[in-house]
């Protein structure tokens, strides 16, 4: 094993080590939505990634124990919403287990392909699911962009050190 100069302590790989390291990684905040048999579902995601420009593909991770997973595992289309710094409460609602995510004050409407679309976001996409890849206790969902709108106003919401925040100049 190669030692890194100046580092004297290290931890062996574990879920806690991974969580601790990624708390230091600032990530953009998105909400993923889909139509479900019992109504719309959605969850807050910080794992959103642009995969390919041609064709336009994105990916995100979802735990197989998540309440949204049964719908995401079967749906043909998802909504991807980039949240603004003014939407910390919305992000918290979609991250909270057992919350009424689509009840008031959440503003949304049904979009193309029956995808629930959140109002007043920085940007949104409707994507066709093209794959679900097993990855430990999660699945990596690959989806091809069908349409979207990048024209929302504001600055992005970030997640860092276990809390939501905005950019600083």
Helix and strand arrangement:
Elements (H helix, E strand, L loop, with lengths): L14 H9 L3 E2 L1 E7 L2 E7 L3 E5 L2 E8 L5 H6 L2 E6 L5 H8 L12 E3 L5 E3 L4 E13 L2 E12 L7 E4 L2 E4 L3
Antiparallel strand pairs: 1-11, 2-3, 2-6, 4-5, 5-10, 6-9, 7-8, 9-10, 11-12
Textual characterization of the structure:
This protein is mainly beta and 169 residues long. The protein has one domain: Roll (Pnp Oxidase, Chain A). The chain is built from three helices and twelve strands. A seven-stranded antiparallel sheet has the order 3-2-6-9-10-5-4. The chain has a three-stranded antiparallel sheet with strand order 1-11-12, covered by helices on one side. Strand 11 and strand 12 (163-166) form a beta hairpin. One of its GO terms (molecular function) is oxidoreductase activity.
Helix and strand content put the structural class at mainly beta
Strand portion, in percent?
A: 35-45%
Shape: globular
CATH superfamily: Electron Transport, Fmn-binding Protein, Chain A
What do the pLDDT scores average to? 93
Distance between the termini: 40 Å
Q: What percentage of residues falls in helices of 4 or more residues?
A: 10-25%
Number of helices in the DSSP assignment:
3
Roughly how many Å is the radius of gyration? 17 Å
Q: Can you summarize the main beta sheet?
A: 7 strands, antiparallel
Number of domains: 1
Q: Write the H/E string, N to C.
A: HEEEEEHEHEEEEEE
CATH-defined fold name? Pnp Oxidase, Chain A
What's the architecture in CATH terms?
Answer: Roll
Could you list the spans in which at least 5 consecutive residues all have pLDDT below 50? none
Oligomeric state of the chains present here:
single chain
Tally of DSSP β-strands: 12
CATH class: Mainly Beta
Q: How do the strands of the widest beta sheet line up side by side? A: 3-2-6-9-10-5-4
